Amino acid sequence: MSSAAGLKRAVCERCLRAQSACICRWITPVQAQAHLLILQHPLEVGNAKNSARLLHLCVNGSVMATGEAFDAGVLDSLLHADGRTPVLLYPATPDDAGLPAPPPMPMLPVDALRLVLLDATWRKSRKMLYLNPALQRLPRLGLTDVAPSNYCIRKAHAPHQLSSLEAAAQALGQLEGAPRRFGPLLDAFDGFVAQQAAYVRACAAGSRADNASQSDEQGVNRLVGR
Ligand SMILES: [Zn+2]
């Protein structure tokens, strides 16, 4: 049930969450040599456990855009801004006949690159790839030596399926040849995960609280996987 009070609930302008669920304390600024472009699927925008906005707020100069099928001109501008060469963080898909074989990774210094991250479920990221031919034509970066995810609040995922923030932290470190350089990002993520878990527990304990807004309830439903 929406209420006037719920609609007027104060929202943090930086992380776009209710101020009671603000995650800005976890913002840890990092400077990456590669530029970071986050393409977020619309279904992830209101997902309370989504880490992409925290990632965006941490990585200086990163750009985040939301969409599924992007306008070709807009996407081209996002991919090639400042003359950087985009590479897509996505595993090889040799068995997917619907996708062309991507070109090899360019032999360029890391500060000439743009890391493109699809922030979506596995199924939706594949759909984004199908719907945007410009993404299909990008060289692909696959992660090596992937550590297990700390994303304990994301259920029914194998350990190697990382959150967007974890995947980006590993990829940026891999590109710079310094796997641990983005450890502070992972520390920030640990704090974020702990806050989300505490929020789930608090909401479960007070699930009949009169002041729970509809949007909060939807967020919790996602968090507990209902
Ligand atoms: Zn905030």
How would you summarize what this structure contains?
With 226 residues, this protein is an alpha/beta fold.
Present the secondary structure layout.
Blueprint: H1 4-7, E1 35-40, H2 52-58, E2 63-66, H3 72-80, E3 85-89, E4 113-119, H4 122-131, H5 133-136, E5 140-141, H6 164-175, H7 183-205, H8 214-223
Parallel strand pairs: 1-2, 1-4, 3-4, 3-5
Overview of this protein structure:
The chain is 35% helix and 11% strand. It has 226 residues and is α/β, with parallel strands linked by helices. The structure holds zinc ion. Zinc ion (ZN) binds at residues 12, 14-15, 17, 22-24.
N-to-C SSE string, H for helix and E for strand: HEHEHEEHHEHHH
Q: What Rg is obtained from the alpha carbons, in whole angstroms?
A: 18 Å
- Strand order in the largest sheet: 2-1-4-3-5
Number of DSSP helical runs? 8
Q: Helix content range of the residues, please? A: 25-40%
Number of E-state strands: 5
List unreliable stretches of 5+ residues: 151-159, 210-226
Shape: globular
User: Could you tell me which ligands this complex binds, including any ions or cofactors?
Assistant: zinc ion
Percentage of residues in strands: 5-15%
Average pLDDT reading: 84
Distance linking N and C termini: 18 Å
Find the structural class using helix and strand composition. alpha/beta
Task: List the defining traits of the structure above.
5-stranded parallel β-sheet, 226 residues, binds zinc ion, 35% helix, alpha/beta, globular, 5 strands
